[in-house]
Amino acid sequence: VRDVSLAVGVPDLTGGRRPVVPPVARMTGATGTVVVEFSVATSGATHLGRVDGPELLREAAQQMVASWVFRRTSTERLFLTARVEFGQNEARATVSPAQ
User: Fold this and answer.
1) Residues 50/2/21/47 CA torsion (nearest 10 deg)
2) How crowded is residue 23: how many other Cβ atoms within 10 Å of its Cβ?
């Protein structure tokens, strides 16, 4: 998925939405970072946990992470953190194992 970086130990991201700046945030010039804690089930589907960051950007980050599907080869639940950086006209996400 474009504009998503995966850290070592994170399985391949096979599908889902890429990070995009929400139109309202773009019109108001809102920028910031949203951190989404989530887990990945054996099927590769994501389950959202805690979300921290500017209110205007949270929903976009939640919807993006909820759409992701990972390639899984093991059966244990995997806990990850997505750090989504929203700029004026672009957004980027970095996914790493939860600490």
Assistant:
1) -20
2) 9
CB atoms within 10 A of CB 83: 16
Sign of the Cα pseudo-torsion (17, 47, 8, 33, in order): positive
Each residue's pLDDT tens digit, 54-93? 999 999 999 999 999 999 988 899 999 999 999 999 999 9
- pTM, whole model, 2 decimals? 0.93
Q: Compute the CA torsion angle 69, 75, 77, 80 (nearest 10 deg).
A: -50
Closest to 6 measured CA to CA, from 78, 87, 90, 88: 78
Chain centroid to Cα 70, Å, comes to 12
Q: Read off the pLDDT of each residue in 39-67 and give the average, rounded to a whole number.
A: 96
